[in-house]
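Data card: per-record layout.
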Amino acid sequence: MRIFGTAALVAGLSIASFGVGSALAQPKYGPGTSATEIKVGQTIAYSGPASAYGQLGKVEEAYFKWLNAKGGINGRKITFITLDDGYSPPKAVENVRRLVESDQVALVFNVLGTPLNMAIRPYMNQKKVPQLFIAAGATAFNDPAKFPWTMGWQPNLQAETAFYAKHLLAKAPNAKVAVLYQNDDFGKDMLHGLQLALGDKAKTMIVDTQNFQPTDPTIDSQLIALKASGADTLFLFTYAKQAAQAISKMDDLAWKPTTYLHLGAASVGATFKPAGLEKSKGILTAGFMKDVTDPQWKDDPDVNAWVAWMKENMPGAELSDILNAAGYAYAQTLEQVLRQAGDNLTRENIMAQAANLKNFRVGLLLPESRINTSPTDYRVITYMKLQRFNGTSWDYVD
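The structure for this 398-residue chain is written out next.
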């Protein structure tokens, strides 16, 4: 543990009731908040098959510590309690129960993974605790009518797969498609999204699908089967560990299909370096953040500010690891919500503010990106550009 010192939000969560856009004259507090403190909870994988993504929690921890040193948010310090769940849904449920019932956090922030967020979502909504800016893109997480206390952040999975399918249909309408997907809510959502986006052509274009469990030691046999299918196009609906294994195995098999990679695994540090930078050349993904190592951003003030922040607050961390930039951007988004909440720090108002972000700009997102949320649309990041890895950084693709 680390600790530093809809529809209209459904009946009873009317935005007007909570004074969006203006702080109330008299401070209002809920669990986990006071005149001096805001408690933020998190459960994330510091161990287990998705441990690479624990870097998100480390960056966020450093960000809140840095923010506290500057005076906090509206004069209040963030107490950040981040727990290891090993990418286990039962452990995530246990952790959030502790965070809510024992630690009395105001909200739970940036939980990693579709199956884990699915597991905790009923509890969070029953207890009316904000489940904010989760590190998972399942389409189901934009459902404010049924689950008004749960909000994603990254582009949703079916929007991402539709984005790839549109490109594929334009460039190679007769492609033979193979799919490797994680056998859980995350992977199945992506596969279903691809099938929907390809429409009537899905049955003829998709020649094979193979799945794996997150705890499987390798995916070698699946890659051998996918190559044998005769596919010339591969979709990797995986996280970083299996993506790196797949890229390495494709090289072993001398198989070089056009490859689309889930944006959550498109990390130079967590995926391409373990797989081999040369082996990773040509991988396509949906970009929505600036590649901070790309020369095109060398004079960008937001990127330069982030690099300076990293050197000061996370010396030795890999700048090419997109998870470092993502964790910073997640934390900035939460900071904005809490600043908007002003002195009304009830859970209801925190959630209402999250559903009322207007033209908010996060500097590490692509320049065209703006965050706009509403009580009926919880999508945070909606702007994407297709990009291809060149062995060092990313090139944009028409």
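Known properties of this structure: Residues 158-287 form a domain with the Rossmann fold fold (CATH 3.40.50.2300). Confidence is low (pLDDT under 50) at residues 4-19.

See the next section for split statistics.
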